[in-house]
């Protein structure tokens, strides 16, 4: 089941999954508590096993960020379901959805309809990223 959660509820998974090898990982993001930002949680019973944050970056543009699935639940379509759910929610207002993909996760986003730009960029402590986006034809 997917439902909206608070920004604080994302912290543990962000820390453990996205910050796995990085004790300095900044698991609180700018904009987390903006009025137009929302956070989705995928629940297996009581257990929060996946998260995704959606931030509006202009009137018709939305950023997906903080995508993380519990290690033990990888490969069970939790990530895909979160992306699909979030895409449906923003669909009435979105022209474009974009995200910054970690290099090794690019094929996951490609499978889910995102296209990468040409140039990688580095985020200190995490590594190479690629900006990816999809237009509202999903
Ligand atoms: C990336 C992540 C969110 C994917 O979530 P998931 O629930 O494991 O993925 P799904 O089961 O929904 O995968 C859907 C499809 O993408 C594929 N896929 C998933 N992760 C992939 C990866 N890293 N590389 C290539 N393909 C991948 C799956 O094989 C599946 O393909 P299929 O439909 O052909 O079988 C998850 O692995 C994760 O949390 N990783 C660590 C944190 C992270 O890197 N987050 C992204 C930051 S940009």
Automatic annotation (TrEMBL):
<feature type="domain" description="N-acetyltransferase">
    <location>
        <begin position="1"/>
        <end position="137"/>
    </location>
</feature>
<dbReference type="GO" id="GO:0016747">
    <property type="term" value="F:acyltransferase activity, transferring groups other than amino-acyl groups"/>
</dbReference>
<protein>
    <submittedName>
        <fullName>Predicted N-acyltransferase, GNAT family</fullName>
    </submittedName>
</protein>
<dbReference type="InterPro" id="IPR016181">
    <property type="entry name" value="Acyl_CoA_acyltransferase"/>
</dbReference>
<keyword id="KW-0808">Transferase</keyword>
<dbReference type="InterPro" id="IPR000182">
    <property type="entry name" value="GNAT_dom"/>
</dbReference>
<keyword id="KW-0012">Acyltransferase</keyword>
<dbReference type="Pfam" id="PF13508">
    <property type="entry name" value="Acetyltransf_7"/>
</dbReference>
């Amino acid at each position: 089941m997917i439902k909206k959660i608070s920004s604080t509820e994302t912290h543990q998974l962000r820390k453990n999954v996205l910050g796995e090898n990085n004790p300095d990982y900044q698991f609180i993001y700018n904009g987390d508590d903006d009025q137009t930002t929302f956070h989705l949680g995928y629940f297996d019973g009581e257990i929060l096993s996946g998260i995704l944050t959606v931030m509006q970056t202009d009137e018709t543009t939305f950023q997906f960020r903080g995508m993380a699935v519990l290690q033990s639940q990888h490969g069970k379509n939790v990530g895909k379901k979160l992306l699909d759910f979030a895409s449906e929610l923003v669909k009435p207002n979105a022209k474009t959805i974009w995200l910054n993909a970690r290099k090794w996760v690019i094929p996951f986003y490609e499978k889910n309809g995102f296209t990468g730009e040409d140039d990688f960029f580095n985020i200190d402590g995490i590594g190479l990223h690629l900006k990816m986006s999809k237009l509202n034809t999903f």
